[in-house]
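Sharing a chain and its predicted structure for anyone who wants a worked example. Both blocks are below, sequence first, tokens second.
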Amino acid sequence: MSQDNMIKLECTECKRVNYHSRKNKKVIKDRLELKKFCTHCKKHTPHKETK
């Protein structure tokens, strides 16, 4: 798995990086946003892609 496709997902409420994922950057140009469970907030929150 190449590092070029790896992205970090950061919680929008507590600003902590909780997840790592992959995406095809040639197909998806904009930043990814998923609703995931944050272990620090103890609830489902939107997670945005960071650099």
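Comments welcome. The chain is about 0% helix and 50% strand.
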